[in-house]
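Run log, item B.
One chain of 152 residues. Sequence copied directly from the ordering sheet:
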Amino acid sequence: MADDLMVAADREPQFIGEIGFAPAFTVELEYAERRVETTPHGKRILKPITGGTVSGRIEGTVYPHGGGEFSLMRGDGVTDISGHVLLRDGNGEWIYLHNVGYRRPDGYYRVTSWVDADVRGNHDWVLGLFFVGTGTERADGRGITIVYTEVL
């Protein structure tokens, strides 16, 4: 039955592109004090964004109160990350960033990210691309640096 859903041509070499990676940008987020709520699914962690910066192929600031992290700490200690960030470049253009991933108890932090921008703006190059991010949290829990890489 599953073979009925596949087309053999999809696996031919000319249809499979090479995968590569290129540095994209770095986002440093500042958070307000986090709030933790106990839910039937685990502990919901709410961390509103208060500011930050973006550097690299996008230069600018993080819009305060324009998003945050709304993650869920599971019973096994792993946190499912869900983050929404509004960036603003030096020309006033807005860029939306959505992070989905996980953080392990040992600090290993990885996200996959979708970026949205105005099709008429300077950052339309992000549209349709896929990014991965590696995060390093501050010891006080009030900030994180995420380094984003474009998957080519």
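Observations after the first pass:
- The chain has one domain: 23-151.
- Residues 22 and 150 are 5 Å apart (CA to CA).
Flagged for discussion on Thursday.
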